[in-house]
Amino acid sequence: MDQQPFLGLSMSEMQRRGPEIQESMRLLGVEFPEAMGLGVGMALIFLYDATPNPPVSPAAPLASAGASWAATSDGVDRISRLPDQILRNVVSRLPAKDAARTAALASRWRGLWRSVPLVLVDAHILPAFVRPERMAPGGDDLSSRLVVAAASRALAAHPGPFRCVHLTWSHMASHRAEITRWLQLLADKGVQELAFINRPWPLDLPLPAAIFRCTSLTRLHLGVWRFPDTASLPRATAFPHLRELVLSLVVVEEQDLAFLLNRSPVLEDLTIIASQTAVCLRIVSRTLRCVQLGMCALADIRVVDAPRLERLFLWMTMGRRSEHELSHIKISHAPNLRMLGHWQPEHHELEIGNTIIKAGTKMSASTMVPSVQMLALEVNFEARNEVKMVPCFLKCFPNVETLHVFSLNSDKPSGKVNLKLWREAGYIECVQWHVKKFVFQEFRGKRSELAFLKFIAESALVLEKMVVMVASKYFSSVDDVNDKLQPLASAKWASEKCKLIVFKSPSTDGASPLWCFRMASDFAQSDPFDLMTAGAERSTGASVLRDPNTL
């Protein structure tokens, strides 16, 4: 499927939007029984969405292109006269079922599919009369048995190598012998990209240790498994070519996660989604460029030595075991870290070097990360103690040029937050001299939010664009929005060149920001936090309240 951002939803909205969420899951092939639970259901949505698209598609099957394969009117089969290299290229672009069927075209095509690297997606090889389903919870069914049988035949028949294999539709708890055999075949025949996802239930099916024999892997996505005890593996076990690793809904212990990082010497991209255990991660890697932790309880995240790390993303995370226990995140050596977020003062405790950052911490070179240019925060502006952490946190990143702030909803204010608080915070270098783009999401018209917006407007000397996404259910009309923001539009702006753009937020609940794991790990995406506002000024629903060209 195409890369699409998803909304983080609070439990209240998940309950209210149950039928809508179920329909979204059905479009992904996931049945949604009541017994499954909305939390696991949402985790499965993100799991399947994070699975890389295979390099082939059955959208244009071989049968529908019959005319193009037919002999010309003079009876000469010119296509079969093409060089083998071209024919192999053609076959390599077909789904496995269609690639095998080319053997029936002419004698020249026989065996060609066995001579090209195989792309096998289990859903592509089901009989046409079977509707593939990822059913949860439940046991084996017809579609699962047919997938297992077809995949087993294809993996055994093709000599390899396997360019890309997706095995995601089987109830693997019912076929343990077959899945162990699959992994042995994949290892022996040189699989390069593998998505290996257990179809629940159970959620903690033991992952066969045979996965570690697949040493040719460059990309690996594991979903809904209990990780094996790596202490019992041979000392030489490694993934020497692995560059991308996604772990979704897995049970993995700290020592096993450390083993994976240590034995993947060229790993560049690590994503952990909805871990079934609190994540303890110690990053010592000369190659990692992007780390994403989403829908997880975080314990200790320590960036010890990561000279190439550019992106560290946290999304919908919480403390170690509950919402009231802070997770500890330490940044020691990451000289190329460019993007960081979404940081939540409510859940995350930051340590830079050997200093834990608190309100009032005195800044020095040892408490700053000057490489960060893009920062995203989630802040409850009605909680004074939480807000007091924000200025200190911003001072730790003096060179931020793009700042995203997501306003969390709260019905229980805890302390007064006004413009005076921000002015008394002192000099914040990134705000005054470097921030060029500022995005504020889920503006509800609260005075505490407006105070922060005015602080940015009156302090940011080089600000070029301020985008405010309005939580529409808090406003009765566009005029109501404009009235609330009038004090901001009429403020004494520090930057004469700044444009103020306002538009409606796509979220109906505003529980968490939009996010897409695949987009975030794509380095062609210059701003993974900005999935909705990049073209806001061109949007028909956007209003420009302040335009320097008309002042």
Description:
There is one protein chain. The protein is 25% helix and 21% strand. The chain has 551 residues and is α/β, with parallel strands linked by helices. The strands form 4 sheets. It has a 15-stranded mixed β-sheet, sandwiched between helices. Strand 5 (162-167), helix 8 (176-188) and strand 6 form a beta-alpha-beta unit. The longest helix is centred in the N-terminal third of the chain and has 16 residues, at 142-157. The two termini are 45 Å apart.
What descriptive keywords fit this protein?
551 residues, alpha/beta, 15-stranded mixed β-sheet, 5-stranded mixed β-sheet, 15 helices, disordered N terminus
Question: Helix and strand layout, with pairings?
Answer:
Elements: E1 6-8, H1 11-16, H2 18-27, E2 30-31, H3 38-50, H4 66-69, H5 84-92, H6 96-101, E3 118-121, E4 134-135, H7 142-157, E5 162-167, H8 176-188, E6 193-197, E7 219-223, E8 244-248, H9 254-262, E9 269-273, E10 279-284, E11 290-294, E12 298-305, E13 311-315, E14 327-331, E15 339-343, E16 348-352, E17 355-356, E18 374-379, H10 384-395, E19 402-407, H11 419-423, H12 429-434, E20 437-443, H13 447-459, E21 465-470, H14 478-489, E22 499-504, E23 512-515, H15 517-520, E24 543-546
Parallel strand pairs: 2-4, 3-5, 5-6, 6-7, 7-8, 8-9, 9-11, 10-12, 11-13, 12-14, 13-15, 14-16, 15-18, 18-19, 19-20, 20-21, 21-22
Antiparallel strand pairs: 1-23, 16-17, 22-24
Helix pairs in contact: 2-3, 7-8, 13-14
Summary?
The protein is an alpha/beta fold and 551 residues long. It is 25% helix and 21% strand.
